[in-house]
Design a protein that fits this description.
- Helix content is about 35%, strand content about 20%.
- It folds into two domains: about 190 residues, 3-Layer(aba) Sandwich (D-Maltodextrin-Binding Protein, domain 2); about 150 residues, Periplasmic binding protein-like II (D-Maltodextrin-Binding Protein, domain 2, 3-Layer(aba) Sandwich), CATH 3.40.190.10.
- The strands form two sheets. Strands 1, 2, 3, 4, 5, 8, 9, 10 and 11 form a nine-stranded mixed beta sheet that branches. It has a two-stranded parallel sheet with strand order 6-7.
- The longest helix is centred in the C-terminal third of the chain and has 19 residues.
């Protein structure tokens, strides 16, 4: 099914009820421009919920630069001090790399009217107030309930004999690739948040490799594998849940006993921008209850504003609700950033054996 909910007269409602942002922009006779680097997904819904009302409210033209995380990080790094981008959206791992490279600047959170409405994990996901978690993605388990008799309850079940040859996991190079190791560590009895325990997860990777029919790099690939009945069991990213449900096969979505991996989608101000005031206004706008609710109802993003409420049929398609939020495990992105090249080489060696 393709679930969509639209907020009636959204632009008018936002103009009337969104609180006055503490960043007071001076009256502008000339239209200014804000350049936002983002993923490029669901642009029609983002235009409805964010672009059009924000442009009208602040007499601004938003120009979007789109692409995947790695492409946009490379472009931002190449620009250096001569940046043409004001605001950038990244998955957590890439936001961390941008911070390490000195490409981001501190956000004045005192200027954000809606900051205190955010979950704690979203308020400062990078440290030093270099980013705000405006959405949350999660990585849990899904399986074919019509083909697997014994219920899936744990990350350790990826190694069960009855699912051998029908398992897929994300490649190490993807956003959630390192989660394979983190959650296998938890399944082995280690602490997924302690880098010293991660070797426990690596010890299980050869056994995991023997279970796989293939790995995947995009959620669209995983969806096709389920449709073709090549995969019965896998981790999945929450933003793909609606599309997985549309496959028509019998799927059970599981919050494993060890928990699920959470990854905030981070919005940051680019170091060197000349439009810091607009950048702050934009960030405050997209974390407001009204905008976050509209994005959630349209299944664009899972909200990080604690005040957002959505119907149950929508909630089940999002990373939403007390049980899910409490189960989230956030990877140590700074530690993983230092290990990633080594892990990629190690992963590829095992997978090619």
């Amino acid at each position: 099914m393709n679930v969509k909910r639209s907020t009636s007269l959204l632009t008018l409602v936002m103009l009337l009820i969104i609180p006055l942002i503490s960043v007071q922009l001076s009256a502008q006779e000339e239209t200014r421009t804000l350049v936002v680097s983002t993923f490029g997904f669901n642009q029609d819904l983002i235009d409805k919920n964010i672009t059009e009302p924000f442009e009208e409210m602040y007499n601004v033209d938003i120009i979007y630069e789109s692409g995947n995380n790695s492409e946009r990080l490379a472009r931002l790094e190449a620009m250096g001090e001569n940046t043409e981008v004001d605001v950038i959206h990244f998955a957590g791992a890439y936001a961390t790399r941008a911070k390490v490279l000195g490409l981001l600047q501190e956000i004045d959170v005192d200027a954000l009217e809606n900051y205190d409405e955010l979950y704690e994990f979203a308020q400062d996901p990078l440290g030093d107030h270099m980013g705000i978690g405006h959405a949350i993605n999660s990585h849990a388990l899904v399986y074919r309930s019509d083909l697997i008799e014994e219920p899936i309850t744990s990350w350790a079940d990826l190694l069960r004999e009855d699912v051998a040859g029908f398992v897929s996991v994300p490649e190490m190079s993807t956003t959630f690739g390192p989660a394979n190791i983190i959650m296998l560590t938890a399944a082995a009895g280690g602490d997924p948040l302690d880098p010293e325990d991660w070797e426990m997860g690596w010890e299980l990777v050869p056994d995991l490799a023997d279970q796989l029919v293939t790995t995947y790099t995009r959620s669209s690939e995983l969806i096709a594998l389920y449709q073709q009945e090549e995969v019965w069991f896998s981790p999945y990213s929450s933003f793909a849940r609606g599309n997985l449900m549309e496959t028509g096969v019998e799927l059970e979505f599981v919050i494993p006993e060890e928990g699920v991996v959470g990854d905030p989608i981070v919005v940051s101000i680019v170091n060197g921008t000349e439009n810091e005031d607009l950048a702050l206004a934009y960030i405050d706008f997209i974390i407001s209850e009204e905008v976050q609710e509209a994005e959630a109802l349209d299944l664009v993003d899972s909200p990080t504003n604690m005040n957002v409420e959505v119907p149950e049929d929508i909630a089940q398609l999002l990373t939403y609700g007390e049980e899910t939020i409490d189960s989230l495990i956030f990877m140590d992105q700074e530690a993983l950033n230092e290990l990633l090249d080594e892990w990629l080489e190690r992963w590829n060696e095992i997978m090619l054996q």
